[in-house]
Specification:
277 residues; mainly beta; Jelly Rolls; 3 domains; five-stranded antiparallel sheet; 18 strands; 12% helix; 44% strand
């Protein structure tokens, strides 16, 4: 009598186990929590809790590191949209996600999640992802995961030119009419280069302000410092902001003023989502 492998496995109750195992492996490729295995500063520490969270006792600009190659993760992240860190309790220090050494996203104190979008940046050869703090702190990390792309973004040109901001010397205005077709969830995209020829310039800032008001956009509020500026990585070329409903109302009424610190902006686009099938 012939007994197929499948029937034999069913008799042993192993088919379901195999299927569950496959799903778990696929989920693990997105889940980064098991991959954190070291810190940059030898005087830092981290502890894994029974509930799966990680307590990270940080020092200024050290880092809790998840190595990609060493943990057999795919190095090409171009099929993913972002990496998200969720915290079990609000942060009490400035936090930063860093992918390799070039793609960075800041988070102000008091947040419970921080997402670094890969928008327009090269993530085809990722070596590590790092959680950092600007001061000594205690961060309880509950989740860290990659989100796959579920959409393409169609650009609508709002402005083209060459605005060299220098030391806050220059900026440009986008009038309210530019945002007539903007909706909640759209992205504002700024394309630029960072000025690196001046050896005295060691950081770069970008500021987007609702015109004629002191308000900044809500969409990137978690990433802004105390002066309402977004820190830009050296060599970065794109910065995108997901617009909130309030952002859209304010932009349609007032427009937007853009300036910065040693940022040379060449394009501004409105990106609208088209979901992938």
């Amino acid at each position: 009598m012939k007994i197929t492998v499948t029937k034999l496995l069913m008799a042993l109750g192993l088919v379901g186990l195999m299927a569950c195992s496959d799903k778990k492996d696929a989920g693990d490729e997105l889940n980064l929590m098991p991959r954190f295995d070291t810190t940059w500063n030898i005087y830092e520490s981290y502890e894994r809790q029974e509930n799966g969270s990680i307590v990270y006792n940080s020092l200024p600009w050290g880092g809790l590191v998840a190595s990609v190659k060493e943990n057999n993760l795919p190095v090409d992240w171009s099929d993913y949209e972002s990496v998200t860190f969720e915290f079990a309790e609000p942060t009490n220090v400035v936090t930063q996600i860093m992918v390799n050494s070039s793609l960075k996203t800041w988070g102000k104190p008091g947040i419970k999640s921080l997402t670094c979008y890969f928008d327009g940046q090269n993530v085809t050869s990722v070596s590590e992802v790092v959680l950092q703090t600007a001061d000594t702190g205690r961060v309880v990390l509950s989740k860290a995961f990659l989100s796959p792309k579920d959409a393409t973004w169609n650009p609508i040109s709002l402005w083209k030119g060459n605005c060299e901001s220098g030391n806050w010397q220059n900026g440009f205005l986008l009038g309210p009419e530019k945002f007539e077709d903007a909706y909640e969830g759209d992205k504002l995209e700024l394309v630029f280069t960072t000025e690196t020829s001046n050896p005295e310039v060691s950081y770069w800032l970008l500021k987007t302000v609702i015109n004629t008001t002191p308000k900044t956009l809500e969409g990137n509020s978690n990433e802004l410092n105390q002066w309402g500026c977004a820190q830009i990585s050296k060599g970065a070329t794109v910065y995108r902001i997901i617009l909130t409903a309030n952002d859209v109302v304010n932009l349609r009424e007032h427009g937007l003023f853009v300036n910065g610190y040693y940022i040379n902006v060449t394009q501004c686009n409105l990106l609208q989502k088209e979901y992938l099938e």
